[in-house]
Specification:
Helix Hairpins; mainly alpha; elongated; 3 helices
Length: about 100
């Protein structure tokens, strides 16, 4: 028995679902960022799996995965900088208590 495309897609769907649940249900801003990272990794798995099984001679899925990792690293850096700034001003990282846009 070999591992096929379906196995990778099922793993990707499970990881994406875990990340989506974490992003929508948690109140801690750091856990929300970690959940978004899990969702991006699920997309990377799907991209590489499709690339490997549909067009194995091209590396398009791998290139997209590298691009997504670069964007995820930038998102994590900017997100953590924003969270640190909010924590210094408000002394909380609870997403329900962050209302900086209100007067």
């Amino acid at each position: 028995m070999s591992i096929g495309l379906e196995h990778y897609l099922i793993l990707s769907v499970i990881l994406f679902s875990i990340g989506l649940y974490g992003a929508l249900s948690k109140r801690n801003a750091i856990i929300i960022l970690m959940s978004i990272e899990i969702m991006l990794n699920a997309v990377n798995i799907a991209m590489v799996a499709f690339s490997r099984y549909i067009v194995p001679e091209l590396l398009t899925g791998q290139l997209f995965a590298i691009f997504i990792m670069v964007v995820a690293a930038a998102e994590a850096a900017v997100g953590l900088a924003i969270i640190i700034t909010i924590y210094r001003n408000r002394e909380t990282i609870d997403a329900t208590e962050i209302n900086l846009m209100k007067w």
